[in-house]
Amino acid sequence: MRFLIDADLPRPTADLVRSFGHEATDVRDIGLGAATDDRIAAYARSHGFCLLTGDFDFADIRDYPPEEYTGLVVFVFPNDANRDIILHLIKAFFEERAVLDRLPGRLAIAEPGRVRLRPA
Does residue 41 lie in a domain region? Predict the structure, then answer.
């Protein structure tokens, strides 16, 4: 799969995603580091990327209908999460192969210990 990594995730996220055999592009590397959510979403949609983000605004299916995307993954991290904890949670998500297989056209809300897919 192809993943677009939002600027709110740590820089090493791209390397982590690649270690699972996927393509990964960080928005900061393509001039979208300070772009609006709408612009990032449009780029992901038009280029066939699944978006990885910690921005809960992307969980609003009225603004970002999952069926229009290769996938949307919104991570929910503990308030005290540091970079290592965030990367550990992202790694745990990518270890869930069955979830990855079901991502196209869906929104995944990934939090410690569980992943919810919308629509189910």
Answer: yes
How far is residue 66's CA from residue 105's CA, in Å, rounded to a whole number? 5
Give residue-wise pLDDT tens across range 29-74: 999 999 999 999 999 999 999 999 999 999 999 999 999 999 999 9
pLDDT at 119: 86
Q: Which residue has the tokens 């699944």?
A: 50
> Is residue 50 assigned to a domain?
yes
Q: Are 81 and 13 in contact (CB under 8 A)?
A: no
CATH code, 72: 3.40.50
Q: How many CB atoms lie within 10 A of CB 58?
A: 24
Residue 101 tokens, joined: 């297989």
